[in-house]
Design goal:
- The protein is globular.
- It is an alpha+beta fold.
- The longest helix is centred in the C-terminal third of the chain and has 13 residues.
- It contains 5 helices and 9 strands; from the N terminus they run αβββαββαββααββ.
Length: about 240
């Protein structure tokens, strides 16, 4: 077992093998890093289930040497199974929390300019997942001592490929010249204001929206007239 797989969840492993394919390779060394894999077409695969912060430099270095696809799972439906310490299943329930493609910005806010890197594609995998928990007294107090042990994929609904900066315009439900705030975006997209703020921060860094003043204490944005970063950055 390599260092990169010691704490790997079943979900991460399933996505890694799914996107690498039968004719690909996993745990590939490149540019001083270990990529999750490379498929038969020569495209590097990196599965990221959390923040993109660890990929800020890694992704740039890999993309400088070949095409890179970052796979980000979006858990549409999450089912929770709870076991006692000896392995007996206590119950199974469906979580009330649901993710959407907008949750990408929870991860991307820590590396907002990665979508500008030439040769890099972000793919959202919309899935159902099952989470295994154990009542061992070692988990978070919020879960009353129940630990999360693993997570696996139970269904893949669809995937959304964001191949170029312009593809992120799907997250801007406004027309040219229309002024909007994070609260307005949140209302129109059906998401929380905090997530809308993250999205606008990333979209502004990408040059897709621009600040146009303030409305009370809220920043006002406009769809950028001319994307100052309309071509991909070369990896640095």
């Amino acid at each position: 077992m390599s260092i990169g797989t010691r704490r790997e969840t079943t979900l991460h492993r399933e996505l890694k093998y799914s996107y690498t394919g039968l004719d690909g390779q996993t745990e590939v060394e490149v540019a001083g890093y270990v990529a999750d894999g490379i498929n038969a077409g020569g495209e590097y695969i990196e599965v990221q289930t959390g923040s993109f912060a660890p990929l800020r430099q890694k992704a740039r270095e890999i993309a400088a040497r070949g095409r890179l696809r970052i796979v980000y799972p979006v858990i549409v439906n999450n089912y929770i199974e709870v076991f006692d310490a000896d392995g007996t299943r206590l119950y199974r329930r469906k979580s009330g929390k649901h993710q959407s493609p907008w949750n990408l910005f929870d991860a991307l806010v820590y590396a907002p300019e990665l979508p500008l890197v030439r040769g890099l594609v972000v793919e959202l995998a919309l899935i159902d997942a099952e989470e295994r928990r154990v009542r061992d007294g070692k988990g978070s107090w919020r879960r009353r001592g129940i630990s999360i042990r693993d997570r696996r994929m139970t269904a893949l609904h669809e995937s959304i490929c964001l191949k170029r900066p312009a593809d992120y315009r799907r997250f801007i439900p406004f027309i040219q010249g229309e002024r909007f705030t994070s609260a307005r975006l949140a209302e129109k997209a059906g998401i929380g204001v905090a997530l809308a703020q993250k999205a606008l921060y990333v979209l502004a860094k990408m040059g897709l929206v621009e600040k146009a003043g303030k409305e009370g204490n809220s920043l006002v944005y406009l769809l950028a007239v001319k994307n100052r970063k309309n071509s991909r950055d070369k990896p640095k």
